[in-house]
Amino acid sequence: METLVQNKTEKNIFAKHTFPVTGMTCAACAISVESIIKSTEGVKDAGVNYANQSAWIEYSDAVSIEEIQNRTRSIGYDLIVDAEDPFQVQQEQQQKHYEALKKRTALAVLLSIPIVVIGMFFMDMPFGNYIMMALATPVVFYLGSGFFINAYRQAKHGKANMDTLVALSTGIAYLFSVFNTFFPEFWHERGLHAHVYFEAAAVIVAFISIGKLLEEKAKSNTSSALKKLIGLQPTTVSIITDGVEREVPIADVAMGDIIIVKPGDKIAVDGEVTQGQSFVDESMISGEPIPVEKIKGEKVFAGTINQKGSFEFKAEKVGGDTILAHIIKMVQDAQGSKPPVQKLVDKIAGIFVPIVIGIALLTFIVWMVFGVDNALTHALLTSVSVLVIACPCALGLATPTAIMVGIGKGAENNILIKDAESLELAHKVNAIILDKTGTITEGNPVVTELVWKDEQSDNALLKQILYSIEKQSEHPLAEAVTAILQTEGLQSLQLGQFVSITGRGVKASSDGKTYLVGNRNLMSEHGIKVGALVSSFAEKWQKEAKTVVYFADEMETLAVIAIADKVKATSKEAIKTLQDSGIEVFMLTGDNQQTAHAVAKEVGLRHYKAEVMPADKASFIKELQAQGKVVAMVGDGINDSHALAQADVSIAMGKGSDIAMDVAKMTLITSDLNMVPKALKLSGRTINTIKQNLFWAFIYNLIGIPVAAGLLYPINGFLLDPMIAGAAMALSSVSVVGNSLRLKALKL
Predict the structure, then answer these.
(1) pTM (2 decimals)?
(2) Are residues 661 and 574 both part of a single domain?
(3) What range does the domain containing 675 cover?
(4) One of 163, 270, 346, 435 is an active-site residue; which one?
């Protein structure tokens, strides 16, 4: 990535770059990568984002990025630093990793099933132990090799994570079982049965692999919002040099170049129109659905889309200086500034893993020191039991199972949820920002009313003339008029003179008579009489912030048309539900003050801001966050992407832009705003289920670990058999899955 900032000190120059990170599978991994990078000599500061799998590093010219990369590799992760498109390389690697993990998980499950069957039901069959050992060996040391490799790399730097506990519990259970298989007489001489735990070792690897596969699947299905934003720029443009048009790569465009834009083209860079006229769809910046007219002297922006006309413009801002480039950078910064996804299981694991290892070692030592008869036997049994019963299977399943069921429940109700971070925060939301266009309103200009001067007549011929004029017009509002007239099955007439009047409307003739369609200024300039009835309707609609279009002949106004972006039928009810639950609701829109006021009044909103640019939306969210509020943003446009990335919880309307849906952590498949309060309710119930799962995952440990360590032995002589410990571990996993499935019965 390009250098973001430079700070010069007396000795060194510090540069800040962003790099993709590979190999991270949990939030604890992100913490490990960040700490190893920060501890590298020459690195001033660094931050690792688990959510978007990237790291920003501020480092001096005294250290090379290769040195930082080698340090990162030493603990089992990697930085992509020398690729032409590093994020593309990262995506390809993630996809390969997912495909490989899918095969390994399937094989682990396939090999574990017969081990469990033999271990549970046919433990006394001839050569049963040897068959289980043959099946368990590839599961533990080939399919589960990643756990041992990562645990070793972490241990080299004095760290421990979930991989450490998986490696210890599976490794010790396997080795203990191998010893019992080859030397059963060691236990028989002491009056004990030589139990084996191959099924526990194999099932642990299989279960944890399934959990990792669920996470990887979610990641591999998430496309890149930044890549889509960059895709808004064309790769080549047509420039005019000495009167000759030629096509050049966008990278070769310089300030001052004259660029020609044809119908349907994307505008490549920011600039000013020098010749021609057209309408441009600027919804990616303003969020407003009505294309903006562009004539000489008007500004145009990269990423916006030209409509039917053609024009030329002079390039004024290119490369990283364009509005689109700033939106890309703002989204990237906002995403990168967020903490990694803080799954509760990963937070607890940092403390839980070393404690369990410590308890197992302490158990062994205590039995060796204070044990009487068979001290070594008891020491081995109890320490292995502690590690087996503390296996993180249930911990590994606690979050993914609840999330997967919660996601399924959301999908049934037209709510798509991307990650656990949103589920953790959504039920805490106390401030919601709503975009206007496409969120509260339909997002398309439509004719709301059409009033004829003479309502008694059927006006059939006049309707046909109006339809014919608007069908030929290039003005974006003309489509709204033709759409409503089309329902009457009208046919186009052959028009005579047709003239488009910039900023006013159109003039056309039919059967020698002149007709006008346009705004009030067009009527005034041609001395057209506007009757009292038409004027009363026009004034009423203007107060409601609707666009008024007049249809007239040479003498008087024949009809008046109201065009507006209609408020969705469910918006008022949804906003009332949110406000009644104590959530502050704000509407931020790029539209004018009059329209914003009219919409806010119609839906019962107390707080709104008009004429707001994309960066202003994000700034307003920052202000609310500074006040300690948990903020949700609901939007549908590219212009909302920065605000969506900045918000604590981001919700996209499903019929909006792909980029808004990509940046957002939740997407509503329908355009029904009532889904927002339902999404918040689902969040609360899902996070409660995760907490309950963690309770079930730990209750066995809280009870089982002391019992496994031999706490009851001095009282009643009871020692927990590792076999029972393995069963308790399995039962905790079953409890977690069963509790997660209860979410399916939730009514939103």
Answers:
(1) 0.57
(2) yes
(3) 414-441+568-681
(4) 435
